[in-house]
Amino acid sequence: MRNEKFSSALYVLMTLAYSQNRKTNSNEIALGLKTNPVVVRRLMALLSEADLIISRKGRDGGVWLAQNPEKMTLADIYRAVEVPEMISKFQKPALKKCKVSCSMKKIVSQVSLSLEKDIIKSLTKTKLSDLLVKVDS
Questions:
Q1: What is the CA angle 44-133-79, rounded to 5?
Q2: Which CATH number fits domain 5-86+127-132: 1.10.10.10, 3.20.20.70, 3.30.750.200, 1.20.1560.10?
Q3: What is the pLDDT at residue 82?
Q4: Which of 8, 20, 40, 41 has the smallest C-beta neighbourhood within 10 Å, fewest atoms?
Q5: What is the pTM (predicted TM-score) of this model?
Q6: Looking only at Cα atoms, what is the longest distance across the chain?
């Protein structure tokens, strides 16, 4: 199953950065994502918890970036939305008389951890502002 949390969170933040200080809300963002505003609000709750956005409810409410796009990395976004592991844990029970079977859980866990570290390292190199300049005006 494909997880779209990261790309959706990136869309939310790109939209907020692109619109700069214009008041934006979850309904507008949901239109662009072609999803329900409730889905966007759940995502925004995660982004708010991570101090990536500021959200105010009510008639004069809206959503804004909590920090400058030059300071926000893709790793910040990735961590905020709790993207599931790229490689799932080995769930099969070990066959005691098979050394490979008994080692699989540890091996797959190490591969997954290494991949996760590489992903974070790579995402740390890119700022939200780096992607913002790629938006066609």
A1: 35
A2: 1.10.10.10
A3: 77
A4: 20
A5: 0.83
A6: 66
